[in-house]
Design goal:
By secondary structure, the chain is α+β, with helices and mostly antiparallel strands. The protein has 50 helices and 19 strands. Residues 721-781 are annotated as: Disordered.
């Protein structure tokens, strides 16, 4: 090829391969012995490290051990490159168990990465720590999982949920409760991705702790349609088990309707009285096999193994269901919500989700609503070849229990030649289970084609299906028998040569089907038996011959023709006895014995034939035949008594032996169930239903009403779904559930009560408590009894003004005097005993005494012309945009000359525009879109500033970050002076007035990951206390001085609203422990509430230990605000 270019087919093939490999990582698999990996791992370039790590992972994929590079790989875990980190984590996961000591060296880096700003890094670090699976680091992994479960990133919280089963597999029993607590917290998450992973963790870690589901049941139902597909499967199973365990079974459902009615008869008939015999068990419509349904439903609850052992004769303990264990599916809200939430999942793209949802409706839905699962299952059957067998396994049980369910759709179960044998066999069984008079003709036409299929095993199954159809529809029995007889007479089946095992199976199934049809009505099939007996010489298959011979003995007295044929038939059997197969020989002996027991004519001939066959059998080479002959020889009956007496060796009396013979050889046959107990008695959609045994991890449904119900409040946000679920049973159309995660954050923090300031409404009655030295001032303190401190924590409080007599209630007075003689717990310390009650006080008009902290923007020495510029953050709220912070700027001329044209602008702004025009433009842009909010709203310029004159301006600034300074330009006398405006996060919030009850309610909604605490020392109050002269009122003023110092310090450094002050009522009047101040605010940019609680510990005259707690949904903002508050509380106040 192309010899003029020197090209050959080999070289062109290589060139083509190289072209297709361009831009891929295929070259990483070329050289397994690449010696350049070690130098690349030590390189200072991240690209070379990535190349080396990719080569290592490629070698691992090829099965090559590269664990000798472990130390070099571990040290790269500290790399700042995300790609390098990810590759290192993959390598560590693979070799951590082989090299545990080296893996432990990287734990510190993992813990460091758990605090990385990038959520991907945090998730990778947690996933790697959990994947190492060393018992030594299990406590560290538990702490990491608990931390990541409160992470603001959804992906990190999902990784925390996925890590819980790995942590549980380490069998750390001491951590079981902590793991379950984390599972419960993640189940309450507002993200569907986290809930799906948490459901899988729940199924692995604590599947029986259904109390975790109770608290979040309706929220889980509402979020179910939005969970990822594999999470939906786990969550559906959990919700189904919870409903059954807490509410019981649905008495209108198809699976348990018989149990409701049958439980009342259990005392009389026993729980399994109807299992020993088969009866036509159909309802009034003929559409339900209640006996099969009862058996399957009991297996769902008990488990097949326990049910079968209980149903045996060795264990007859009853399993009864009382009326209290049932509920109505039409009136129970939880059942209706579950059915409504799973309805959209019937049309899911994932076949496993469809089966799980169908299983819920099969078990819990009323009978008239079970039809909802038909079309989704049939659609799944037509659209997915991969899951066809699994879907058919489930439909097989549904169709057997309720044949009318799929009977109109019989054409969907016709067989394609390209389908596997297993699928064909299932479809045959399903077709035979719901065949009706209207569909049987079409089904039989299909069966005629199936019999000619090249797969003879499938053809044999088709013949068996014909027999089942004939048993189900007695009117069609004669047609089936004629077809089966014609098949048994075909030459290629009955020849003495040329048939194999498959052809023998066809004949065997044909005779077996005929036999089962005859057993239903023997008199009407006498001619069929005669035809089979006449064809006995042409049938050479041992199993088929044995069945025909059995019919000879079973129906030897039927009609007039068969008894006259017996003499000839028995002689023929005796003549060919020695050449028969084992099963045929045994059947011949039984048949001759049966004929002899019931014969009235030709007794002498029958006895001779029997004696002849017994002598032949006693000399047979097979010991089974010899044993059968000896047994029958010693079993006399009315016609065999002379034979038994000839031996004279019978141990039993003749009367007893006669009874035994009648029982064994008599024609009274007991009907038995046609279905074997190895049926699909496992839950729909489970692996156990496919493999026909309990797969690892399979659990039956819980016992009905086994979960004790408590009086629980209905969670908020479920009224809408309850309203939608109320109409569930009346419609066939399913709407999709709304996503609750979009509005959850806002709804959780919206105030449900009217918020009003309480400090100004209750001042008039308390003027008598003010100090005599401040007659002209507003009331400094208002007192109200709030009772027990624990009640205060739980939000139970008494509000409103109170005088001193009301304050000193009995409980508070006993606490004040230390008279707690009736304390039941002697271990409580004296300090905690006396600090039982507290009073709520409020400072009168504390806002007028707040002095914001002042900062320097420009120093006179720096400016060069004597201009001094200071600024302080204002408590005013911008009316232009919620993104703007108001700042008061003070300009002072410290020189002896006039300064002109003073203005402050953004460093990148255009100063040529007129200030008024720019302000107007800004107003319009701010109203149009918040994205157009400027960095600095231009201030009104100062035309001139005289010596020692001060000018004040309000500047509105938009900071890009609450920690980064803003670069501005100050113009004066034509000069440009660069300045930096440093932000204060305390003024990135605005006051949010509320009463104490609303505060406590909002605080209770922000636990865990939204709560941050820190401790610091406070000393500002000491200077105030040292000024007192020690008069009799000094003790009362200590608490007031501390409250004023704390409140003024906080309000002077942050734009907050003082909600309440709780003062301890204790015997030790120098102990300020228990003093609590609450402040509320909302973030300017998002209006998210931010709550601050400060608790005081220590003596009044000593430095106090403050515990600061911030509750805020914005994690980063809350932590930075907490640090800011702690920092300015520690700083001493400048006098």
């Amino acid at each position: 090829m192309f010899p003029q270019f020197g090209a050959t087919a080999d070289t062109l093939s290589k060139a083509s391969t190289m072209v297709f490999r361009i831009g891929t990582d295929a070259h990483l698999y070329d050289d397994p012995d690449d010696v350049s990996i070690a130098p690349l791992l030590d390189s200072k370039f991240d690209s070379e490290k990535c190349e080396a790590l990719k080569r290592l992972l490629a070698l691992i994929a090829q099965g090559i051990d590269v664990s000798n590079y472990f130390p070099q790989v571990v040290k790269n875990v500290a790399s700042q490159s995300l790609e390098v980190k990810k590759l290192v984590y993959l390598y560590l996961l693979h070799y951590a168990e082989k090299r545990p000591n080296e893996a432990l060296l990287s734990i510190n880096y993992f813990q460091k990465d758990l605090g990385d700003p990038n959520p991907l890094v945090r998730a990778w670090a947690l996933r790697t720590m959990a994947g190492i699976r060393l018992h030594v680091i299990a406590p560290l992994v538990l702490v990491a999982v608990g931390k990541c479960a409160r992470d603001p990133s959804v992906y990190v919280r999902k990784c925390a949920a996925n890590a819980l089963p790995k942590l549980h597999d380490l069998r750390q029993e001491e951590h079981a409760l902590a793991i379950e607590e984390i599972v419960g917290k993640l189940l309450n998450d507002h993200s569907p991705a986290v809930v799906g992973a948490a459901a899988a963790a729940f199924a692995s870690v604590c599947p029986y702790n259904l109390s975790l589901i109770r608290r979040n049941y309706r929220k889980l139902c509402e979020i179910l349609p939005d969970v990822e597909e594999w999470g939906q499967i786990a969550l559906i199973g959990i919700l189904l088990r919870y409903v059954i365990a807490s509410h019981g079974l649905v008495k209108e459902s198809i699976m348990f309707s018989l149990q409701c009615t049958g439980s009342s008869h259990s005392v009389k008939d026993g729980p399994d009285a109807d299992f020993g015999q088969v009866k036509e068990s159909t309802d009034m419509d003929g559409t339900c096999d209640y006996e099969f349904v009862n058996m399957v439903s009991r297996c769902y609850i008990e488990g097949p193994d326990e049910y079968l052992s209980r149903s045996s004769y060795a264990n007859r303990e009853s399993f009864e269901l009382t009326g209290e264990q049932f509920t109505s599916g039409k009136s129970n809200d939880d059942v209706k919500i579950l059915l409504y939430s799973t309805s959209p999942l019937l049309w899911s793209n994932n076949s496993a989700v469809v089966l799980a949802a169908a299983g819920v409706h099969w078990v819990m839905a009323p009978k008239e609503d079970v039809k909802r699962i038909i079309k989704p299952l049939l659609f799944l059957l037509r659209s997915s070849n991969a899951s066809k067998y699994v879907v058919l396994c489930n439909i097989q049980v549904f169709a057997k229990a309720m044949p009318s369910l799929f009977a109109p759709y019989y054409e969907d179960f016709f067989i394609c030649s390209s389908e596997s044998y297993q699928v064909k066999a299932l479809k045959l069984e399903i077709l035979s289970s719901f065949a009706t008079d209207s569909s049987i003709s079409s089904i039989f036409k299909e069966f005629q084609d199936y019999i000619r299929d090249p797969d003879r095993r499938f053809a044999a199954d088709t013949i068996a299906a014909i027999g089942l159809c004939a048993q189900r529809l007695p009117k069609m029995a004669h047609i089936c028998v004629d077809g089966l007889l014609a098949l048994s007479r075909e030459e290629f089946v009955t020849k003495d040569f040329g048939f194999g095992d498959q052809e023998a199976g066809i004949l065997t199934h044909a005779i077996l089907s005929i036999k089962s049809i005859i057993k239903q009505d023997p008199p009407s099939h006498e001619k069929v038996i005669i035809q089979l007996v006449r064809s006995l010489d042409s049938v050479k298959v041992p199993a088929a011959r044995a069945m025909i011979i059995w019919m000879v003995g079973e129906y030897s007295s039927l009609g007039e023709i068969i008894p006259r044929m017996l003499n000839t038939v028995l002689k023929y059997l005796a003549w060919c006895f020695t050449s028969e197969a084992l099963e045929t020989k045994l059947q011949i002996l039984n048949t001759v014995c049966k004929v002899l027991v019931g014969a009235t004519e030709d007794l002498l001939t029958f006895k001779k034939i029997f004696s002849y066959l017994v002598e032949l059998a006693e000399c047979d080479l097979n010991y089974d035949v010899r044993d059968r002959a000896r047994f029958l020889k010693k079993l006399p009956s009315s016609n065999l008594v002379s034979i038994g007496q000839e031996e004279g060796t019978n141990d039993l009396p003749e009367k007893d032996l006669h009874v035994v013979a009648e029982c064994i050889l008599g024609r009274e046959t007991r009907k038995v169930k046609t279905e074997s107990f190895s049926y699909r008695f496992y839950l729909p959609g489970s692996l156990s239903q496919i493999v026909l045994h309990a797969a690892p991890g399979y659990e039956p449904l819980p016992k009905p009403c086994s979960l004790l119900l408590d009086d629980l409040n209905v969670p908020e946000g479920t009224s809408e779904i309850k309203k939608r679920a109320a109409d569930y049973s009346g419609t066939d159309d399913y709407g999709t559930s709304s996503d609750p995660s979009d509005n959850e954050s806002a709804s959780d923090y919206d105030s449900q009560h009217s918020v009003a300031e309480s400090s100004g409404s209750a001042r008039g009655d308390d003027s008598e408590f003010t100090s005599e030295g401040n007659d002209n001032a507003d009331p400094l303190i208002q007192i109200s009894d709030i009772g027990n401190a624990s009640e205060n924590q739980n939000g139970v409080s008494q509000s409103g003004p109170a005088n001193l007599g009301e304050l000193m209630s009995d409980r508070a007075l006993e606490s004040w005097l230390g008279e707690h003689s009736g304390s039941s717990n002697p271990g409580i310390s004296e300090q905690s005993q006396v600090r039982i009650s507290s009073a709520r006080i409020s400072l009168g008009d504390v806002g007028k005494r707040v002095k914001p902290k002042c900062y320097s923007l420009l120093d006179p020495a720096t400016s060069g012309n004597g201009l001094k510029v200071d600024y302080s953050f204002s408590s005013e709220i911008s009316s232009m945009s919620h993104l703007l912070v108001c700042i008061e700027v003070f300009f002072k001329n410290c020189s002896s000359e006039t300064i002109s044209e003073i203005t402050l602008v953004d460093e990148d702004s255009n100063r040529a525009l007129d200030a008024a025009d720019k302000a107007a433009d800004v107003n319009q842009s701010c109203l149009a879109s918040s994205d157009n909010v400027p960095t600095l709203v231009p201030m009104e310029s100062i035309a001139s500033l005289e010596p020692d004159q001060t000018a004040r301006r309000i500047v509105q600034v938009r900071f890009h970050h609450h920690l980064l300074p803003l670069k501005l330009a100050l113009y004066c006398d034509g000069k440009k002076l660069p300045v930096k405006l440093r932000p204060d996060i305390g003024y990135f919030v605005k006051p949010l007035p509320m009463d104490v009850e609303v505060f406590i309610d909002k605080e209770s909604r922000l636990p865990g990951m939204f709560e941050y605490t820190r401790s610091c020392a406070f000393t500002d109050h000491i200077e105030e206390l040292n000024k007192e002269n020690g008069d009799s009122l000094f003790v009362k003023d200590k608490f007031l001085a501390i409250c004023e110092s704390l409140a003024l310090k906080i309000l002077s450094n942050a734009n907050l609203c003082l909600v309440s002050i709780d003062m301890p009522v204790a015997a030790n009047l120098d102990d300020a422990s228990g003093l609590r101040l609450r402040f509320s605010s909302a973030i300017l940019s998002s209006s998210i509430p931010c709550l601050i609680t400060i608790t005081v510990e220590g003596k009044c005259s000593d430095p106090l230990n403050l515990s600061i707690k911030v509750n805020c949904e914005e994690t980063v903002f809350g932590l930075n605000l907490l640090n800011r508050i702690a920092n300015f509380l520690v700083e001493p106040t400048l006098s």
